């Protein structure tokens, strides 16, 4: 009966969940060339602020608004941002400015406002030298009633418009009976994640490099089929990551991260499982930051898909959590004496990316980019390969036990 709860739940729910996956590209369709944003400036005060971005070709754009906190969202076609960081230092009405890819040929600018704000004027015009185009946005402080009206009148679901659709359709396992593992490289696209204290390396690149090594290592083991939730620098929402794993009938979900802490002397790997109550303040704070990923990208908080049969869900979730804990213990056992671990290396908190009720899941913090020794290791290909091998050993040990117990 152990495997039947999860199998029945998956059969009842996965096919019925609406998930935005771009179709395969049309044969012969020309791929659009990404825009280049090569210059920017911002000026203003707490009443009015002007933002100017220069592009190599004319940008198509749309503007939307998100509440809690108030944000102005500027959606663009796929854009390479060749901007100096200081050119868009937040000022005036905006307390934070982020930009980057959103996947599927789309990019986004997220302007986090200090209060209710409206873009009162937006236009694109040629630059004086005729070699590019300038997007000009004028924003003003407004009252809450006006902002609420903007929110209620806009026709927008929170997704970015796609101009290129090259994400492949969800595929079944290549081998019947394979033990399928989803390896999730944390962050991506507009969501850079943590920043290295010495090298300023972005977490999204660290996690993807390790995830690729891990998938390669796992796929060398007979009977295992591992895949990446993202294989490039693109944004995926937290629910999307979970649903990709479920639609591929994953037996395991491993989300990879490398965070930062204010305490720069703390270092070592940590394995997290999901729980309604955090094991400690460090776990609670980390989960809170990781759960902000969608907000950082300007996504409204998605409600979780409606599930069927509450009793079935509860039974499945309990069983899945037990398997997740067993996986975490196997990982810690494999790492001990081989790589550095934080004190109490198995911790738990309410991570949204670990919420699949029918897929045992762990979040692996490889180390801390805020610690210079950890940062050096995280950027070392040989260290990554060593850790990938140890993790593969832990997964194989877990798989043998799970199969023996009907997992």
UniProtKB/TrEMBL annotation:
Family matches, as InterPro entries: AMIN_dom, MurNAc-LAA_cat, N-acetylmuramoyl_amidase_3
Its EC number(s): 3.5.1.28
CDD domains xrefs: MurNAc-LAA
Domain of life, per lineage: Bacteria
Gene Ontology biological-process annotations: peptidoglycan catabolic process
Pfam family for this entry, one: AMIN
Molecular functions (GO terms): N-acetylmuramoyl-L-alanine amidase activity
Record's keyword annotation contains Transmembrane: no
Catalytic activity field: Hydrolyzes the link between N-acetylmuramoyl residues and L-amino acid residues in certain cell-wall glycopeptides
Alphabetical list of PANTHER family matching this protein: N-ACETYLMURAMOYL-L-ALANINE AMIDASE, N-ACETYLMURAMOYL-L-ALANINE AMIDASE AMIC
Protein name: N-acetylmuramoyl-L-alanine amidase
Organism: Sinorhizobium saheli
């Amino acid at each position: 009966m152990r495997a039947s709860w999860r199998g029945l739940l998956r059969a009842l729910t996965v096919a019925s969940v609406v998930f935005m996956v771009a179709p395969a590209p049309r044969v012969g369709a020309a791929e659009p060339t990404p825009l280049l944003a090569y210059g920017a400036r911002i000026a203003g005060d707490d009443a009015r602020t002007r933002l100017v971005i220069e592009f190599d070709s004319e940008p198509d754009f749309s503007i939307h608004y998100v509440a809690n906190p108030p944000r102005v969202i500027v959606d663009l076609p796929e854009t390479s941002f060749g901007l100096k960081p200081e050119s868009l230092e937040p000022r005036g009405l905006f307390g934070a400015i982020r930009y980057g890819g959103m996947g599927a040929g789309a990019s986004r600018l997220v302007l986090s406002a200090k209060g209710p704000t409206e873009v009162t004027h937006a236009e694109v015009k040629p630059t004086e030298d005729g070699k590019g185009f300038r997007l000009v946005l004028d924003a003003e402080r407004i009252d809450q009633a006006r902002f609420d009206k903007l929110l209620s009148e806009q026709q927008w679901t929170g997704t970015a418009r796609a101009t290129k659709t090259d994400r492949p359709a969800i595929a079944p396992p290549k081998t019947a009976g394979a033990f399928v593992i989803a390896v999730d490289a944390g962050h991506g696209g507009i969501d850079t994640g943590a920043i290295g204290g010495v090298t300023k390396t972005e977490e999204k690149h660290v996690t993807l490099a390790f995830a690729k090594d891990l998938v390669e290592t796992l796929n060398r083991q007979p009977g295992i089929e591992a895949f990446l939730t993202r294989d490039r620098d693109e944004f995926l929402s937290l629910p999307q990551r979970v649903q990709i794993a479920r639609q591929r009938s994953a037996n395991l979900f491993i989300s990879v991260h490398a965070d930062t802490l204010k305490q720069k002397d703390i270092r070592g790997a940590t394995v997290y499982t999901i729980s309604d109550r955090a094991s400690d303040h460090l776990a609670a704070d980390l989960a809170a930051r990781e759960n902000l990923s969608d907000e950082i990208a300007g996504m409204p908080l998605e409600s979780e898909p409606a599930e069927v049969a509450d009793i079935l869900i509860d039974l499945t979730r309990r069983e899945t959590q037990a398997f997740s804990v067993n996986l975490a213990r196997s990982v810690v056992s494999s790492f001990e004496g081989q790589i550095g671990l934080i004190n109490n290396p198995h911790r738990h908190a309410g991570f949204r990316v670990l919420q699949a009720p029918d897929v045992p899941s762990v979040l692996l913090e490889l180390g801390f980019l805020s610690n210079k020794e950890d940062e050096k290791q995280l950027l070392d290909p040989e260290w990554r390969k060593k850790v990938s091998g140890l993790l593969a050993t832990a997964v194989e040990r877990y798989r043998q036990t799970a199969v023996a117990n009907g997992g």
